[in-house]
Amino acid sequence: MPASWRGAFRSPSTMNSMGSTEASRDQGYRGDDKCGERNPDDLPWVGGTFRATGTGLPTNALVFAVTSLSPMAPALPLSIVFSQAGPGCDLFVAPDILDVLVTTTGTAQSQLFLANVPSLAGVIFYHQMVPIELDALGAWVAVSATNALQLTVGVF
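Predicted structure:
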């Protein structure tokens, strides 16, 4: 596991021969504080739906849930792409699968269905949220990023 990954692996108590795991990578950033946290609600299992919730997000925002089989190496500073992104706000996940969510509460939940295909067991994927904070007129105020997750698909 690369040194830039932080956090402990978590696994369910019913882990079988190919358990599902999660680790957190870096911490994300919003302006002068951290953007919030991205935590899995359910670990990824073959034939199940992986769900993760981002908390501490801007109150009014479009939130891009970014999923990939590849991390960004090196991480992409979002300030290169968006003038509204602060320094240290990085994209750690290649933008292969994008889902757009809306939040008016500072919390967003993404989900990804994993087909009931046993060969998915052991596949590692990455997940991160990129919220775009909106003002009352819908103008972009800030772009930030949550921590990124590294997840391993498990099978019962």
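Summary: The mean pLDDT is 80.
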